[in-house]
Write a structure and sequence with these properties.
With about 300 residues, this protein is of the alpha/beta class. About 45% of the residues lie in helices and about 10% in strands.
């Protein structure tokens, strides 16, 4: 009850095996440990932790203000409760290439299945906002190489994200992605692609797993799973979807309570107490606690 049934090494191998199958992997973003458990219970095969969500939970903008240790601590809380492989957003690696190397080992220790690093400068911003600045291709390749060499588990999944499409154009983004693969990245995350043609161009240029970011209110059209499968993509990412849904429901509830003076009309939209207890395995904990309380040593022990 208090831990997962699988080891981090098993979950890392599971992610690699799943991606080798040629079928699109739908990867929802978890908000917290409880939502990660719900993602697992609803039949998904992997989960994601967004840097933007982790920052927003602390009421911070997504501009590189969180630290590697803060993020690793939150990640460990999530990996404790789910047997799904969890991929995490490692932003820029939290500093120089040596910091990216330390981040890999912190995240390995936190039980994660993999991470992605991006080629923005340390003062980063959301990948779907204007005004991004990038490090050089060579500096990002060093970042990726340091991360790859720092792995103690060769199955830890290392993905390189490039934000170059919006800054330098599509051809430069593809050129950068190839360099990052040469430096040791297992997969590529091309951020803020503009249309299906650009998705096709990336697929034609690279033979490693590719991630499609289906974030809302951004520069990329929201493509369906069948379309992404036909385009040859391996992961469909929904990084902030459920955080936005949760916050929308919270604001609706606050307005309703203020207007009506009671939460009565909100009850049909709430998760019930019984369902909450089912997810938490409340009865199993009670049984376990009772068994421990009633335990006695055998005679002569």
């Amino acid at each position: 009850m208090l831990h997962t049934r699988t080891t981090p090494a098993q979950r890392r191998r599971a992610l690699r095996e799943r991606l080798a199958g040629g079928r699109l992997l739908t990867m929802p973003g978890a908000v917290n440990p409880y939502s990660a458990k719900l993602i697992e219970e609803h039949g998904y095969e992997a989960a994601y932790l967004s840097g933007a969500v982790l920052a927003a939970e602390l009421c911070l903008p997504d501009i590189g203000l969180t630290t590697s240790t803060e993020v690793a601590a939150r990640a460990q809380q999530v990996t404790r409760v789910t047997d799904l492989p969890v991929l995490i957003d490692a932003d820029t690696g939290f500093g120089a290439p040596v910091d990216a190397a330390r981040t890999v080992q912190l995240f390995e220790d936190a039980g994660l299945a993999g991470l992605h690093l991006e080629d923005q400068t340390a003062v980063k911003r959301c990948g779907h906002l204007d005004g991004k600045t990038l490090v050089t291709r060579e500096e990002m390749a060093q970042r990726v190489r340091a991360a790859a060499e720092a792995r103690r588990d060769p199955d830890f999944f290392l993905m390189a994200r490039t934000d170059a499409r919006a800054v330098e154009g599509l051809d430069a983004a593809i050129d950068r992605a190839k360099a990052y693969v040469d430096a040791g990245a297992d997969a590529v995350f091309p951020e803020a692609l503009a249309d299906e043609g650009e998705f096709e161009a990336f697929r034609a240029a690279l033979d490693v797993p590719l991630l499609a970011n289906m974030t809302e209110f951004g520069k990329t059209p929201l493509l369906g799973a069948r379309t992404l499968q036909n385009l040859g993509y391996d992961i469909a990412l929904y990084p902030v979807t459920f955080f936005r849904l949760m916050n929308g429901a919270l604001e609706d509830g606050l307005r309703t309570l203020a207007a009506e003076g009671t939460q009565e009309s909100l009850l049909p939209r709430m998760q019930t107490r019984s369902r909450l207890y089912e997810v938490l395995r409340y009865a199993d904990y009670t049984t376990f606690d009772s068994a421990v309380h009633d335990f006695t040593l055998p005679p002569g022990a």
